[in-house]
Amino acid sequence: MELWRLLAHSHWFTLNILGYEVRVCARCTGYILGFATPFLVLGHLADPLGFLNLGVQQLVCVLLTLPYALDWVTQSWELRHSTNWVRLATGILLGVDMFIFSRLGLQAGKIIFVGGTLAVTFIGYIGKLKRSNQLQCTKDF
Taking the mean position of all CA atoms in its chain, how far away is CA 12? Predict the structure, then answer.
């Protein structure tokens, strides 16, 4: 197994770092950029959306997650084709969302986040299984 596959999944950017080609996942790169940028700019700011009430803060977190979830699910179900630029952008939004979410400190919110993540993953994988079963059926004929 090639080591770059651990960093690249199946959609990657190829970077040239010190003469070496490094393939990194587009969405994961966006996620890291999205989380690290506000962290570096704002530092250890306890609550970046502290001026908003808690319900609005949670709504912002949900809205920042939706583009990623829609991109991944529609791509998994082959309803449309995604690009690395879209993956990078949705990863950045997800990273910013996780930065904000990590500052809210809500125990119930963490449970909701994990549940939502599992739901999106489950829905996406059902699409992939459905697609692979359809491909298998067409090979049988």
Answer: 14
